[in-house]
Amino acid sequence: MHKVEELKIWQKSIELTKLVYQLIKQLPSDEKYGLLGQIKRSVVSIPSNIAEGAGRNSKKEFKYFLNIANGSSYELQTQLIILSELGFIAKEEMKSIHKLLNEILKMNFALQRSID
After folding, report:
1. The pLDDT value given to residue 34
2. Model-level pTM greater than 0.70?
3. Can you name the CATH fold of 4-115?
4. N or C: which terminal CB in the chain sees fewer CB atoms within 10 Å?
């Protein structure tokens, strides 16, 4: 349906994934299977679902996977807030990630509206 590599939302979500992976390198190793694992799953889910939807044969299916990516974005947002609230990462360190995540959320909503 779409060339996923050309979708700006997919490109930005790949960039987000790289930034989050760099950020979580700072986390204590005892969080490896707890919050850290959940964060990795959430952030990887965003570009993965955009790609899966782009590869589907209908607009309805594409929109469905964009909805999943949207849910993963909010899940990631919550997990990053928890990191900050627990004192693992300073709020200042996450500003660029939050900004990019909010941009992706807006792009996702706009793309979904354009599909209707």
Report:
1. 80
2. yes
3. de novo design (two linked rop proteins) (1.20.1440)
4. C
